[in-house]
Amino acid sequence: MLQSRVGALSGVGLEIKGTWGDELAGKRIAHCITGSISVYKAPDIARSLVRHGADVFPVMSPDAARLLSPKIMEWATGQKPLTVIGGRTEHIELTEGKDRVDLVLVAPASANTIAKVSHGISDTSVTLVVSAALGAGIPVVLCPVMHGSMMKNPAVEEALLRLRGMGVSIVEPLLEEQKAKIPPPEWILDEVIYRLAPKPLAGRRFVVSAGPTREHIDSIRFITNASSGRMGIELTRALRMMGGDVSLVLGPTSLEAPKGVKVSRVTTAAEMLEKVLEESEGAEAFFSTAAVSDYRPSSGMVGKLESAAHARLSLELVATPKVINEVKQRITTLEIIPFKAVYGLNHDPRKIYAEYEEIKPIMLVVNDVSRPDIGFASDYNEVTVISRSGRVTHIPRARKTVVARKIVELYIEEKLRPPPAHSAT
Question: N or C: the chain end with fewer CB closer than 10 Å?
Answer without folding.
Answer: N
